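Margin note from the TA: students keep mixing up input and output lines. Inputs are the sequences; the output is the structure of the whole complex. Example:
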Amino acid sequence: MSPAPLRLVVDDERAVRPRPGASVPVVESEAQLRSLLRGLAGVDAVGAEARAAKLATRSLKRETKRAAIDLALSMVDLTTLEGADTPGRVASLCAKARRPDPEEPDTPAVAAVCVYPDLVATARAHLAGSDVRVASVATAFPSGRASRAVKLLDVADAVAAGADEVDMVIDRGAFLSGRLGEVFDEVVAVREACGPAHLKVILEVGELVTYDNVRRASWLAMLAGADFIKTSTGKVAVNATLPTTLVMLEAARDFAESTGRLVGVKAAGGIRTTKEALRYLVVVNETAGSAWLDPALFRFGASSLVNDLLLQRRKQRSGAYARPDRISVD
Amino acid sequence: MSERLDVRKTYKLLVGGAFPRSESGRSYEVLDAKGRFLANAAQASRKDVRDAVVAARSAQRAWWSLTPYNRGQVLYRLAEMAEARAGELAEQVGRAEGTRAAEARAAVGRSIDRLVWYAGWCDKVAQVLGGQNPVAGPYFNFSVPVPSGVVGVLADQASSLEAFVDAVAAPLATGNAVVALASEARPIPAALIGEMSATSDLVPGALNVLTGRTGEVAPVLASHEDVDGLDLAGVDDGFAGELAALASETVTRVLRGADPQDRGLKRLRAFVETSTVWHTIGQ
């Protein structure tokens, strides 16, 4: 018995409707980019937080909850980004990505496995024949403090090893000190180096200080050709939060309406429980619309979240609370 | 001088060292033995059980990693706390059970003595339940009692304090963490023991006390896969059978029919497992 897919009972009033003839503006100069980003309306911080808190009180029950858990699982980028990573660890993570819960064969596979560039080839080999994609962080992740040439080499290396998706970090120092052109050019250059691979641009919202900066950085990344905008590296004190993700989803929605191009959003870092993940899905649906309820447009960057999703999934099936050590610990 | 306002107390749950109201927001009226209103108590839901088991699971490692001597000191301190509030306990036991003051005081005294008794057992269980096994080779072979893990306790319905203390102190003494469901009609003495445990240096989460409807909460606790042991003292035989069947899904150890008056080691033995260790003989 597989649960019915999530669907809206009424017409999606929030569905994105691009304006006729909408297209992505061509950025020709730093001055033009600056005026474009300055022209964005400021974020009502109190309002964004209140809205996120309000949406977090929504409760999903029964079939909806079952469908949402499966959807959340299929949106996970199963991530391991540790200095202690080994090919063996990546191999076991890939096995888990393909079949998260071997005792429940109908459990959906996750969206991707996310590793450092030197382990991309390992992941590629272990994911052969499955739909799970290989994502790789690059551009001197997580700090991004390296010369452009080194960053581009890092990207080329990951793509050559078989990465389907590349997660780059923006230069927060340059962004915060107003050198927007530099950040923009770098994203464009990385976009080119990616070739056919999808580009996710990590804004590192924990270092951007204000919601206004988050909105501007989101637009900058989307204008420069990002396929996804991603909240954070997971390596700093403040990672994805519901309000910042809401601001980024608003940016993606507004961008889609004014340009006709749909850009995905990835919330990464600190999302550990099913309850939190479902709150994100509610915010996605209520902010960007149901089109984003798809692994092609929304992702979770997480590792321990998968185990909690599996526990809750088992709980929904059997009615009894599940035992954490019956699921692979990674 | 203005009259003081009443300071009325609602008895809360004890989960992970904190005193939350039920996640469901519900409470229920607790009546004394004569049917008069006594207090409101939180009415635990299935999600409170879930939270309590999660808290117990993480606390169990910390509780078991203390030295046995230290665990004994902590349980003894719980007895100290109970001794200091013996008057309050006696009043609540008397009102809940409808016994005379002297009888209630005697029951409190026995409960505190029982705590001290279990405190003393903490560093003696290993000698009594474990031992060295004879082997034909140049090595030692030891049997060591280790805790089952998380133990669910459905406390006795009639004896509000004495049986409760007996049922929770025994698994604590052997290094288990406990999720206890107090007597449905007489939960207040158990809730007071929970309050005292918070000031006796017990690892937060090692003892969790829930109050509420036994019929609603017990099946959730029994079927929870992460519960390793279940004491069914507080439910009648028919219901205990159903709960034991639920618990059997995950091979949970079940204790039925333990008598709080029994001075034997039945409760201490109930939730330990034997770990066998080999060790070379050093020169």
